[in-house]
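Could you help me review a protein record that somebody else here produced? My question to you is simply how this chain folds and whether the C-alpha coordinates agree. Thanks in advance; the entry in question is below:
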Amino acid sequence: METVVENGASVSYAYCEACYRRALASGLDPIAVARQSLSRIGLECPSCGCTAEEFAESYLFGCPDCYRHMSKVAGRELARLRRGAGGTDVVLDTLTDEQRGRVRDYVVSSRVRLARNVEGMLFPRKLERLAGEHTSGRDLPATERLGREAMFAAKGIFRGDIYYMAELDGLQKTMLLERHLISPPLARSALGAVIIERGDRPEISIMLCEEDHIRAQCVKKGLDLAGAYARLKRYDEALGRRLPIAYDAKAGFLTSCPTNVGTGMRASVMMFLPALKCMGRLERSFDDMRERFGITVRGFFGEGSKAAYDMYQISNADAIYFGAEDTVRLVESAAMELAAMESAATRDLLRTSETKLLDRIQRSYGTLLHAHTLESDEMFELLTDVRLGVRLGLFDISPEQLDGILDDLATAFEIISDEPHAERRGIRRAQIVRERLGAI
Protein backbone atom coordinates (compact mmCIF):
# COMPACT_ATOMS: atom_id res chain seq x y z
CA MET A 1 0.00 0.00 0.00
CA GLU A 2 1.21 3.49 -0.81
CA THR A 3 -0.17 6.75 0.68
CA VAL A 4 0.12 10.13 -1.03
CA VAL A 5 -1.43 13.58 -0.57
CA GLU A 6 -3.87 14.67 -3.31
CA ASN A 7 -5.70 18.02 -3.16
CA GLY A 8 -4.78 18.36 0.49
CA ALA A 9 -6.15 14.93 1.41
CA SER A 10 -4.40 11.67 2.18
CA VAL A 11 -5.13 8.96 -0.40
CA SER A 12 -4.00 5.33 -0.14
CA TYR A 13 -3.41 3.07 -3.16
CA ALA A 14 -3.27 -0.70 -2.69
CA TYR A 15 -1.69 -2.86 -5.41
CA CYS A 16 -1.30 -6.53 -5.99
CA GLU A 17 2.39 -7.38 -6.05
CA ALA A 18 2.33 -8.49 -9.70
CA CYS A 19 0.76 -5.20 -10.90
CA TYR A 20 3.20 -3.11 -8.86
CA ARG A 21 6.23 -4.96 -10.22
CA ARG A 22 4.85 -4.84 -13.80
CA ALA A 23 4.48 -1.05 -13.60
CA LEU A 24 8.01 -0.57 -12.25
CA ALA A 25 9.50 -2.94 -14.82
CA SER A 26 7.82 -0.94 -17.57
CA GLY A 27 9.19 2.33 -16.23
CA LEU A 28 5.73 3.54 -15.19
CA ASP A 29 4.60 5.27 -12.04
CA PRO A 30 2.42 2.76 -10.13
CA ILE A 31 0.20 5.58 -8.82
CA ALA A 32 -0.42 6.87 -12.37
CA VAL A 33 -1.29 3.34 -13.49
CA ALA A 34 -3.70 2.98 -10.56
CA ARG A 35 -5.37 6.31 -11.35
CA GLN A 36 -5.82 5.26 -14.97
CA SER A 37 -7.38 1.97 -13.90
CA LEU A 38 -9.73 3.72 -11.49
CA SER A 39 -10.83 6.18 -14.18
CA ARG A 40 -11.88 3.27 -16.40
CA ILE A 41 -14.18 1.67 -13.84
CA GLY A 42 -17.61 1.45 -15.43
CA LEU A 43 -16.17 2.11 -18.89
CA GLU A 44 -14.67 -1.29 -19.73
CA CYS A 45 -15.89 -4.87 -19.52
CA PRO A 46 -13.25 -7.34 -18.27
CA SER A 47 -15.37 -10.27 -19.47
CA CYS A 48 -15.23 -9.40 -23.17
CA GLY A 49 -12.93 -6.37 -23.49
CA CYS A 50 -15.64 -4.06 -24.79
CA THR A 51 -14.97 -0.38 -24.05
CA ALA A 52 -17.06 2.77 -23.89
CA GLU A 53 -15.35 3.98 -27.06
CA GLU A 54 -16.18 0.75 -28.90
CA PHE A 55 -19.82 0.99 -27.80
CA ALA A 56 -20.04 4.61 -28.95
CA GLU A 57 -18.90 3.54 -32.41
CA SER A 58 -21.11 0.45 -32.87
CA TYR A 59 -23.93 1.00 -30.34
CA LEU A 60 -23.54 -2.69 -29.44
CA PHE A 61 -22.24 -4.28 -26.26
CA GLY A 62 -19.91 -7.29 -26.32
CA CYS A 63 -21.62 -9.58 -23.78
CA PRO A 64 -24.37 -9.51 -21.14
CA ASP A 65 -21.79 -8.69 -18.45
CA CYS A 66 -21.24 -5.29 -20.11
CA TYR A 67 -24.41 -4.01 -18.47
CA ARG A 68 -22.83 -4.66 -15.06
CA HIS A 69 -19.17 -3.85 -15.69
CA MET A 70 -19.83 -0.85 -17.97
CA SER A 71 -22.38 0.59 -15.58
CA LYS A 72 -21.63 4.22 -16.45
CA VAL A 73 -22.32 3.63 -20.13
CA ALA A 74 -25.22 1.20 -19.80
CA GLY A 75 -26.94 3.15 -17.03
CA ARG A 76 -26.73 6.41 -18.95
CA GLU A 77 -28.07 4.81 -22.15
CA LEU A 78 -30.94 2.97 -20.51
CA ALA A 79 -31.96 6.14 -18.67
CA ARG A 80 -31.99 8.02 -21.99
CA LEU A 81 -34.15 5.32 -23.60
CA ARG A 82 -36.60 5.42 -20.71
CA ARG A 83 -36.90 9.19 -20.97
CA GLY A 84 -37.51 8.97 -24.70
CA ALA A 85 -40.00 6.13 -24.40
CA GLY A 86 -42.66 8.28 -22.73
CA GLY A 87 -45.41 6.01 -24.01
CA THR A 88 -48.53 7.11 -25.81
CA ASP A 89 -51.75 8.88 -24.90
CA VAL A 90 -53.68 6.55 -27.20
CA VAL A 91 -56.00 4.18 -25.35
CA LEU A 92 -54.64 0.70 -25.98
CA ASP A 93 -57.86 -1.30 -26.28
CA THR A 94 -57.92 -4.65 -28.06
CA LEU A 95 -59.43 -4.25 -31.52
CA THR A 96 -63.02 -5.38 -31.98
CA ASP A 97 -63.95 -7.88 -34.70
CA GLU A 98 -65.40 -5.00 -36.73
CA GLN A 99 -62.16 -3.02 -36.45
CA ARG A 100 -60.11 -6.08 -37.38
CA GLY A 101 -62.24 -6.48 -40.48
CA ARG A 102 -61.47 -2.92 -41.57
CA VAL A 103 -57.72 -3.45 -41.08
CA ARG A 104 -57.45 -6.93 -42.57
CA ASP A 105 -57.24 -5.84 -46.22
CA TYR A 106 -54.23 -3.64 -45.50
CA VAL A 107 -52.14 -6.01 -43.36
CA VAL A 108 -50.22 -8.72 -45.18
CA SER A 109 -48.68 -10.46 -42.17
CA SER A 110 -47.99 -10.14 -38.45
CA ARG A 111 -44.70 -10.93 -36.75
CA VAL A 112 -43.51 -11.16 -33.16
CA ARG A 113 -39.80 -11.49 -32.41
CA LEU A 114 -38.12 -12.13 -29.06
CA ALA A 115 -34.41 -11.47 -28.53
CA ARG A 116 -32.72 -13.64 -25.91
CA ASN A 117 -29.10 -14.08 -24.80
CA VAL A 118 -27.19 -16.55 -22.66
CA GLU A 119 -25.41 -15.52 -19.49
CA GLY A 120 -21.61 -15.62 -19.72
CA MET A 121 -21.50 -15.92 -23.54
CA LEU A 122 -20.04 -13.28 -25.84
CA PHE A 123 -22.55 -11.59 -28.12
CA PRO A 124 -22.33 -12.76 -31.78
CA ARG A 125 -20.45 -9.67 -32.95
CA LYS A 126 -17.60 -10.47 -30.55
CA LEU A 127 -17.79 -14.18 -31.35
CA GLU A 128 -17.41 -13.47 -35.04
CA ARG A 129 -14.30 -11.39 -34.46
CA LEU A 130 -12.63 -14.09 -32.38
CA ALA A 131 -13.67 -16.99 -34.60
CA GLY A 132 -12.15 -15.60 -37.80
CA GLU A 133 -13.56 -15.36 -41.29
CA HIS A 134 -13.06 -19.03 -42.19
CA THR A 135 -15.04 -20.45 -39.26
CA SER A 136 -18.60 -21.61 -39.88
CA GLY A 137 -21.41 -21.87 -37.38
CA ARG A 138 -21.27 -25.66 -37.43
CA ASP A 139 -17.68 -25.48 -36.13
CA LEU A 140 -18.34 -22.90 -33.42
CA PRO A 141 -19.13 -24.37 -29.97
CA ALA A 142 -21.38 -21.41 -29.13
CA THR A 143 -23.58 -21.90 -32.21
CA GLU A 144 -23.59 -25.66 -31.71
CA ARG A 145 -24.75 -25.26 -28.10
CA LEU A 146 -27.41 -22.72 -29.02
CA GLY A 147 -28.67 -24.94 -31.82
CA ARG A 148 -28.86 -28.02 -29.61
CA GLU A 149 -30.73 -26.29 -26.79
CA ALA A 150 -32.98 -24.32 -29.14
CA MET A 151 -34.00 -27.56 -30.85
CA PHE A 152 -34.73 -29.25 -27.51
CA ALA A 153 -36.88 -26.28 -26.46
CA ALA A 154 -39.03 -26.74 -29.56
CA LYS A 155 -40.17 -30.23 -28.57
CA GLY A 156 -43.93 -30.35 -28.21
CA ILE A 157 -44.28 -26.89 -29.78
CA PHE A 158 -43.07 -27.34 -33.35
CA ARG A 159 -40.83 -29.64 -35.38
CA GLY A 160 -37.96 -27.94 -37.13
CA ASP A 161 -34.69 -28.39 -38.98
CA ILE A 162 -31.48 -26.41 -38.57
CA TYR A 163 -29.62 -24.75 -41.46
CA TYR A 164 -26.17 -23.12 -41.24
CA MET A 165 -25.66 -19.90 -43.18
CA ALA A 166 -22.15 -20.90 -44.30
CA GLU A 167 -23.64 -23.93 -46.08
CA LEU A 168 -26.39 -22.11 -47.99
CA ASP A 169 -25.85 -20.49 -51.37
CA GLY A 170 -27.05 -17.05 -52.38
CA LEU A 171 -30.29 -18.23 -53.96
CA GLN A 172 -31.27 -20.26 -50.92
CA LYS A 173 -30.63 -17.28 -48.64
CA THR A 174 -32.70 -15.07 -50.93
CA MET A 175 -35.60 -17.50 -50.66
CA LEU A 176 -35.42 -17.45 -46.86
CA LEU A 177 -35.19 -13.64 -46.87
CA GLU A 178 -38.22 -13.24 -49.11
CA ARG A 179 -40.24 -15.48 -46.80
CA HIS A 180 -38.97 -13.47 -43.81
CA LEU A 181 -37.57 -16.59 -42.17
CA ILE A 182 -34.14 -14.95 -41.76
CA SER A 183 -32.87 -11.36 -41.63
CA PRO A 184 -30.27 -9.69 -43.88
CA PRO A 185 -27.67 -9.60 -41.03
CA LEU A 186 -28.08 -13.34 -40.47
CA ALA A 187 -27.74 -14.02 -44.20
CA ARG A 188 -24.38 -12.22 -44.12
CA SER A 189 -23.11 -14.09 -41.05
CA ALA A 190 -20.84 -17.10 -41.48
CA LEU A 191 -21.44 -18.12 -37.86
CA GLY A 192 -25.23 -17.91 -37.97
CA ALA A 193 -27.82 -20.64 -38.28
CA VAL A 194 -31.60 -20.86 -38.37
CA ILE A 195 -34.12 -23.43 -37.16
CA ILE A 196 -37.19 -23.45 -39.41
CA GLU A 197 -40.51 -25.06 -38.65
CA ARG A 198 -41.23 -27.95 -41.01
CA GLY A 199 -43.97 -27.71 -43.61
CA ASP A 200 -44.82 -25.68 -46.70
CA ARG A 201 -46.07 -22.74 -44.63
CA PRO A 202 -43.64 -22.40 -41.68
CA GLU A 203 -44.60 -19.78 -39.10
CA ILE A 204 -41.72 -20.10 -36.63
CA SER A 205 -38.02 -19.57 -37.27
CA ILE A 206 -35.28 -19.33 -34.65
CA MET A 207 -32.26 -17.27 -35.74
CA LEU A 208 -29.01 -18.18 -33.96
CA CYS A 209 -26.02 -15.84 -33.65
CA GLU A 210 -27.58 -12.92 -35.49
CA GLU A 211 -27.21 -9.71 -33.45
CA ASP A 212 -28.29 -11.63 -30.34
CA HIS A 213 -27.71 -15.27 -29.43
CA ILE A 214 -31.30 -16.23 -30.17
CA ARG A 215 -33.96 -14.31 -32.04
CA ALA A 216 -37.13 -16.36 -32.09
CA GLN A 217 -39.89 -15.16 -34.36
CA CYS A 218 -43.35 -16.21 -35.44
CA VAL A 219 -44.96 -14.83 -38.61
CA LYS A 220 -48.68 -15.26 -39.26
CA LYS A 221 -50.76 -14.28 -42.24
CA GLY A 222 -52.93 -11.20 -41.90
CA LEU A 223 -53.57 -9.37 -38.65
CA ASP A 224 -52.80 -11.85 -35.87
CA LEU A 225 -50.16 -10.48 -33.52
CA ALA A 226 -51.86 -12.08 -30.52
CA GLY A 227 -51.73 -15.51 -32.16
CA ALA A 228 -48.07 -15.06 -33.10
CA TYR A 229 -47.16 -14.03 -29.56
CA ALA A 230 -49.08 -16.95 -28.04
CA ARG A 231 -47.07 -19.49 -30.07
CA LEU A 232 -43.79 -17.75 -29.35
CA LYS A 233 -44.49 -17.37 -25.63
CA ARG A 234 -44.70 -21.14 -25.22
CA TYR A 235 -41.37 -21.55 -26.96
CA ASP A 236 -39.76 -18.75 -24.94
CA GLU A 237 -40.81 -20.37 -21.66
CA ALA A 238 -39.37 -23.71 -22.79
CA LEU A 239 -36.13 -22.02 -23.86
CA GLY A 240 -35.78 -20.42 -20.43
CA ARG A 241 -35.87 -23.88 -18.87
CA ARG A 242 -33.01 -25.03 -21.12
CA LEU A 243 -30.63 -22.04 -20.98
CA PRO A 244 -29.62 -19.41 -18.39
CA ILE A 245 -31.09 -16.36 -20.09
CA ALA A 246 -29.38 -13.03 -19.38
CA TYR A 247 -31.86 -10.99 -17.34
CA ASP A 248 -31.67 -8.05 -14.96
CA ALA A 249 -34.37 -7.47 -12.35
CA LYS A 250 -34.52 -3.73 -13.14
CA ALA A 251 -33.63 -3.56 -16.83
CA GLY A 252 -35.26 -6.77 -18.08
CA PHE A 253 -33.82 -9.04 -20.80
CA LEU A 254 -30.27 -7.98 -21.72
CA THR A 255 -29.53 -7.62 -25.42
CA SER A 256 -26.63 -6.68 -27.66
CA CYS A 257 -28.31 -3.39 -28.60
CA PRO A 258 -29.79 -1.39 -25.69
CA THR A 259 -32.90 -0.49 -27.71
CA ASN A 260 -34.08 -4.11 -27.31
CA VAL A 261 -33.52 -4.24 -23.53
CA GLY A 262 -36.68 -4.80 -21.51
CA THR A 263 -39.08 -7.28 -23.05
CA GLY A 264 -36.67 -7.94 -25.94
CA MET A 265 -39.82 -7.94 -28.05
CA ARG A 266 -40.62 -6.49 -31.45
CA ALA A 267 -44.18 -6.76 -32.72
CA SER A 268 -44.70 -5.72 -36.33
CA VAL A 269 -47.25 -5.82 -39.09
CA MET A 270 -46.40 -5.76 -42.79
CA MET A 271 -48.74 -3.26 -44.44
CA PHE A 272 -49.52 -2.72 -48.13
CA LEU A 273 -49.78 1.05 -48.66
CA PRO A 274 -49.63 1.87 -52.39
CA ALA A 275 -52.21 4.69 -52.36
CA LEU A 276 -50.42 6.70 -49.66
CA LYS A 277 -47.25 6.40 -51.72
CA CYS A 278 -48.95 7.39 -55.00
CA MET A 279 -50.59 10.40 -53.36
CA GLY A 280 -47.31 11.56 -51.79
CA ARG A 281 -48.64 11.21 -48.24
CA LEU A 282 -46.48 8.35 -47.00
CA GLU A 283 -43.82 10.20 -45.01
CA ARG A 284 -46.32 12.60 -43.47
CA SER A 285 -48.49 9.67 -42.38
CA PHE A 286 -45.49 7.85 -40.89
CA ASP A 287 -44.39 10.99 -39.03
CA ASP A 288 -47.86 11.26 -37.53
CA MET A 289 -47.77 7.62 -36.45
CA ARG A 290 -44.33 8.01 -34.88
CA GLU A 291 -45.49 11.00 -32.86
CA ARG A 292 -48.79 9.50 -31.73
CA PHE A 293 -47.84 5.86 -31.18
CA GLY A 294 -44.06 5.86 -30.87
CA ILE A 295 -43.78 3.31 -33.67
CA THR A 296 -40.95 2.81 -36.12
CA VAL A 297 -41.21 2.07 -39.85
CA ARG A 298 -38.87 -0.26 -41.71
CA GLY A 299 -38.58 -1.60 -45.23
CA PHE A 300 -39.75 -4.93 -46.63
CA PHE A 301 -36.79 -6.88 -45.22
CA GLY A 302 -36.65 -5.17 -41.83
CA GLU A 303 -34.12 -2.89 -40.19
CA GLY A 304 -31.86 -1.02 -42.58
CA SER A 305 -33.71 -2.18 -45.70
CA LYS A 306 -35.57 -0.10 -48.24
CA ALA A 307 -39.24 -0.25 -48.98
CA ALA A 308 -40.22 -2.72 -51.69
CA TYR A 309 -43.50 -3.72 -53.32
CA ASP A 310 -45.19 -0.80 -51.44
CA MET A 311 -44.95 -2.84 -48.24
CA TYR A 312 -43.71 -1.49 -44.91
CA GLN A 313 -43.07 -2.98 -41.48
CA ILE A 314 -44.77 -1.06 -38.68
CA SER A 315 -43.39 -1.99 -35.25
CA ASN A 316 -42.89 -0.76 -31.70
CA ALA A 317 -39.85 1.48 -31.33
CA ASP A 318 -39.19 0.64 -27.67
CA ALA A 319 -38.97 -2.65 -25.83
CA ILE A 320 -38.25 -0.99 -22.49
CA TYR A 321 -41.56 0.77 -21.90
CA PHE A 322 -44.51 -1.50 -22.68
CA GLY A 323 -45.22 -5.06 -21.61
CA ALA A 324 -45.77 -7.75 -24.24
CA GLU A 325 -49.58 -7.58 -24.36
CA ASP A 326 -49.59 -3.78 -24.47
CA THR A 327 -47.05 -3.87 -27.29
CA VAL A 328 -49.42 -6.04 -29.34
CA ARG A 329 -52.28 -3.59 -28.72
CA LEU A 330 -50.07 -0.60 -29.55
CA VAL A 331 -49.04 -1.94 -32.96
CA GLU A 332 -52.57 -3.07 -33.78
CA SER A 333 -53.91 0.42 -32.95
CA ALA A 334 -51.27 2.04 -35.19
CA ALA A 335 -52.19 -0.39 -37.99
CA MET A 336 -55.85 0.57 -37.68
CA GLU A 337 -55.01 4.28 -38.05
CA LEU A 338 -52.75 3.67 -41.05
CA ALA A 339 -55.43 1.51 -42.68
CA ALA A 340 -57.88 4.41 -42.40
CA MET A 341 -55.33 6.78 -43.99
CA GLU A 342 -54.68 4.30 -46.83
CA SER A 343 -58.41 3.91 -47.43
CA ALA A 344 -58.85 7.68 -47.74
CA ALA A 345 -55.83 7.90 -50.07
CA THR A 346 -57.27 5.13 -52.26
CA ARG A 347 -60.54 7.05 -52.71
CA ASP A 348 -58.62 10.19 -53.64
CA LEU A 349 -56.42 8.27 -56.07
CA LEU A 350 -59.44 6.86 -57.89
CA ARG A 351 -61.04 10.28 -58.06
CA THR A 352 -57.97 11.94 -59.58
CA SER A 353 -56.58 9.25 -61.92
CA GLU A 354 -59.02 6.34 -62.12
CA THR A 355 -58.63 5.51 -65.82
CA LYS A 356 -54.83 5.51 -65.78
CA LEU A 357 -54.71 3.48 -62.56
CA LEU A 358 -57.22 0.83 -63.66
CA ASP A 359 -55.48 0.47 -67.03
CA ARG A 360 -52.12 -0.14 -65.33
CA ILE A 361 -53.63 -2.72 -62.99
CA GLN A 362 -55.35 -4.64 -65.79
CA ARG A 363 -52.20 -4.61 -67.93
CA SER A 364 -50.18 -5.98 -65.00
CA TYR A 365 -52.72 -8.76 -64.48
CA GLY A 366 -52.62 -9.65 -68.18
CA THR A 367 -48.82 -9.74 -68.18
CA LEU A 368 -48.73 -12.13 -65.22
CA LEU A 369 -51.40 -14.32 -66.80
CA HIS A 370 -49.64 -14.63 -70.17
CA ALA A 371 -45.93 -13.86 -69.68
CA HIS A 372 -43.48 -16.44 -71.01
CA THR A 373 -40.67 -15.26 -68.74
CA LEU A 374 -40.54 -13.13 -65.55
CA GLU A 375 -37.66 -11.65 -63.64
CA SER A 376 -38.09 -11.59 -59.87
CA ASP A 377 -38.27 -7.79 -59.49
CA GLU A 378 -40.67 -7.47 -62.42
CA MET A 379 -42.92 -10.15 -61.00
CA PHE A 380 -43.17 -8.40 -57.63
CA GLU A 381 -43.96 -5.04 -59.26
CA LEU A 382 -46.76 -6.61 -61.30
CA LEU A 383 -48.12 -8.45 -58.27
CA THR A 384 -48.15 -5.13 -56.39
CA ASP A 385 -50.51 -3.69 -59.03
CA VAL A 386 -52.71 -6.78 -58.94
CA ARG A 387 -52.88 -6.67 -55.14
CA LEU A 388 -54.23 -3.11 -55.37
CA GLY A 389 -56.72 -4.37 -57.98
CA VAL A 390 -57.84 -7.09 -55.56
CA ARG A 391 -58.49 -4.44 -52.90
CA LEU A 392 -60.56 -2.45 -55.44
CA GLY A 393 -62.61 -5.54 -56.30
CA LEU A 394 -61.39 -5.78 -59.92
CA PHE A 395 -60.58 -9.49 -59.66
CA ASP A 396 -62.34 -12.41 -58.05
CA ILE A 397 -59.24 -13.19 -56.00
CA SER A 398 -58.55 -12.80 -52.30
CA PRO A 399 -55.31 -11.33 -50.92
CA GLU A 400 -54.63 -14.73 -49.34
CA GLN A 401 -54.84 -16.44 -52.73
CA LEU A 402 -52.44 -13.92 -54.21
CA ASP A 403 -50.00 -14.49 -51.35
CA GLY A 404 -50.36 -18.21 -52.03
CA ILE A 405 -48.66 -17.68 -55.39
CA LEU A 406 -45.61 -16.29 -53.61
CA ASP A 407 -45.69 -19.20 -51.17
CA ASP A 408 -45.80 -21.63 -54.08
CA LEU A 409 -42.82 -19.90 -55.66
CA ALA A 410 -40.89 -20.19 -52.41
CA THR A 411 -41.86 -23.85 -52.05
CA ALA A 412 -40.70 -24.51 -55.62
CA PHE A 413 -37.56 -22.44 -55.11
CA GLU A 414 -35.22 -25.42 -55.27
CA ILE A 415 -36.67 -26.33 -58.66
CA ILE A 416 -36.15 -22.77 -59.89
CA SER A 417 -32.65 -22.40 -58.41
CA ASP A 418 -31.53 -25.71 -59.95
CA GLU A 419 -31.84 -24.07 -63.36
CA PRO A 420 -28.27 -23.07 -64.28
CA HIS A 421 -29.26 -20.07 -66.43
CA ALA A 422 -31.23 -16.96 -65.48
CA GLU A 423 -33.33 -17.19 -68.64
CA ARG A 424 -34.61 -20.65 -67.77
CA ARG A 425 -35.30 -19.54 -64.18
CA GLY A 426 -37.41 -16.70 -65.59
CA ILE A 427 -39.36 -19.13 -67.75
CA ARG A 428 -39.98 -21.43 -64.80
CA ARG A 429 -41.05 -18.54 -62.60
CA ALA A 430 -43.55 -17.33 -65.20
CA GLN A 431 -44.91 -20.84 -65.63
CA ILE A 432 -45.67 -21.16 -61.91
CA VAL A 433 -47.39 -17.76 -61.85
CA ARG A 434 -49.47 -18.59 -64.95
CA GLU A 435 -50.57 -21.93 -63.56
CA ARG A 436 -51.50 -20.59 -60.11
CA LEU A 437 -53.14 -17.38 -61.33
CA GLY A 438 -55.06 -19.21 -64.01
CA ALA A 439 -56.34 -21.77 -61.49
CA ILE A 440 -57.78 -19.13 -59.15
